[in-house]
Specification:
4 helices, about 200 residues, three-stranded mixed β-sheet
Length: about 200
């Protein structure tokens, strides 16, 4: 697993905050992203734009400038979620080297690889936040997952799923159709981050 990313938050004013990272984001130059932009080249920007009220992310090496809307929670309430979003995007576990063969394998083979990656890699990562991810089924190349513990009902579960879990599984399983979360997030009793408005 990658070394933990340290994130120092420095609010500039009521609408802007700078995050200083212990290692740079792998993007050349200065990049600006808003919610309507294609963020496929910048998982960190995509993760941050998933936080409540974030409208813009400027990436410049080891500094990220976040802009939020006037109706968003104050920085004191958002900083923990922003740190989590950065780590979710930058500390994705490396999948097992013995990945599935080229092309989409059958569902049983996908299940075996996905279950192994979840048990040996992903769960070590999400356990830092009291969470767990398990493979429930594979249906036509789509991995069906259930989240529990701190991930169940967490306001950042969608970010964890797309930036951490799905990204790791896609690297391990070429041709994977995607992942589907069947967690009853409304039943979560101890989420790591409470959803906005909860």
């Amino acid at each position: 697993m990658s070394a933990p990313v340290k994130v120092i938050a420095k609010p500039v004013d009521g609408s802007r905050c700078t995050l200083v990272l212990s290692r740079p984001v792998r993007l050349s130059g200065v990049r600006r992203y808003t919610s309507g932009d294609d963020t496929s080249d910048a998982p960190v920007a995509k993760a941050l734009l998933g936080a409540p009220g974030v409208t813009e992310v400027v990436v410049a090496g080891d500094e990220l400038t976040i802009t939020k809307s006037a109706s968003a929670p104050p920085w004191s309430d958002l900083v923990a979620q922003l740190r989590y979003a950065v780590r979710a995007a930058m500390e994705q576990p490396d999948p097992v080297a013995a990945a599935a063969p080229a092309g989409l394998p059958d569902d049983d083979a996908v299940y075996q690889v996905a279950d192994h990656v979840c048990r040996t890699e992903i769960n070590h990562w999400v356990a830092q936040h009291g969470g767990k991810v398990e493979v429930v089924d594979v249906q036509d190349g789509m991995v069906v997952l259930r989240m529990s513990g701190g991930c169940q009902g967490c306001g950042m579960a969608r970010v964890t799923l797309s930036q951490g879990v799905e990204a790791a599984l896609r690297r391990a399983i070429p041709g994977l159709r995607g992942v589907r979360d069947v967690t009853d997030h409304g039943a979560g009793s101890r989420p790591y981050f409470r959803p906005a408005g909860a």
